[in-house]
Automatic annotation (TrEMBL):
Residues 1-20 form the signal peptide. InterPro entries: Cupredoxin, Ser-rich/MCO-related. This is Cupredoxin. Gene3D superfamilies: Cupredoxins - blue copper proteins. It comes from the Eukaryota. Keywords: Signal. The keyword Signal applies. The keyword Signal applies. The lineage of its organism: Eukaryota, Fungi, Dikarya, Basidiomycota, Agaricomycotina.
Length: 209
């Protein structure tokens, strides 16, 4: 009984954070431009950031603030060529309140200012503007290393049907993988809190009560 009293708040916390999760969409290549839209977002731990590659052949690749156009070992979508009838997607889960910096690994794009930030400070030395400025001063050759090669987050040749959640470290569990194929125009909602997880939590409640 005593352990139940401890477990109950934990279940409530898990369920609450699960249901409160937000999905943020960043459009990549709007109107054929070398841009992330929006470029600079705020997201809470547990939120999903879903990149939608609508034109061109871009990546969403993590870097540090200090070295803007090089993968820091964090997430990388691989190249996501957009096609007319299939929007490629890539999703990450935010697992930190620290700023997350990223760029497009296509040759020359980072240096052209194609970068984004999640939870960048709005003031001080490490703003999004400062990051973008630093990226644009990286010499052109340096970007080639970027994102392309590598294991991990394979870019599915099948575009949106293979959208995946690569967490910035945090395992997203089996529920995360159950993405729905996004047909053009509709954002797929990737819910790490899968229905089964919610069900399990609810079952836990029932058992406790
Ligand atoms: C994209 O192009 C359309 C048509 O020119 C324009 O209405 C729209 O504002 C553009 N979107 C952005 C984000 O620039
Ligand atoms: C996307 O860009 C990469 C790197 O430049 C290239 O290897 C790949 O062939 C391109 N894909 C398409 C469909 O253009
Ligand atoms: C921020 O930039 C200013 C001006 O370049 C510099 O004096 C200061 O030391 C920097 N602060 C930090 C924390 O790096
Ligand atoms: C990629 O980066 C590594 C170190 O980060 C460097 O040793 C290597 O030469 C780079 N390769 C290319 C092709 O730029
Ligand atoms: C793409 O889809 C086709 C048919 O659905 C399948 O045969 C192929 O293996 C898939 N490719 C990848 C990389 O998933
Ligand atoms: C968050 O992601 C970073 C980057 O992948 C990883 O180093 C860190 O361990 C993760 N933190 C947690 C709490 O999962």
């Amino acid at each position: 009984m005593f352990s139940n009293l401890i477990a109950l708040p934990l279940l409530i916390t898990a369920l609450t954070s699960c249901l409160a999760q937000t999905t943020h969409t960043i459009t990549v290549g709007t109107n054929g431009t070398k841009t992330f839209t929006p470029t600079d977002i705020q997201a809470a731990i547990g939120d999903v950031v879903n990149f939608q590659f609508v034109t061109g052949n871009h990546t969403a690749t993590q870097s540090t603030f200090a070295v803007p156009c090089t993968n820091n070992g964090g997430f990388k979508s691989g190249f996501k060529p957009a096609s007319a009838n299939d929007i490629a997607t890539f999703a990450i889960m935010v697992n930190t309140t620290d700023p997350i910096w990223g760029y497009c690994g296509q040759v020359g794009h980072c240096q052209a200012g194609m970068v984004f930030a999640i939870n960048a400070p709005e003031t001080g030395n490490k703003t999004f503007a400062a990051f973008q400025s630093a990226a644009m001063s990286v010499s052109a050759g340096d970007g080639s290393n970027s994102s392309s090669s590598g294991s991990g987050t394979s870019a599915g040749a099948n575009g949106s049907s293979s959208s995946l959640i690569s967490s910035a470290g945090m395992s997203t569990g089996t529920g995360a993988a159950s993405s729905t194929a996004a047909s053009a125009g509709s954002a797929s909602t990737l819910l790490p809190c899968s229905a089964s997880m919610v069900g399990a939590l609810l079952a836990g409640f029932t058992w406790l009560l």
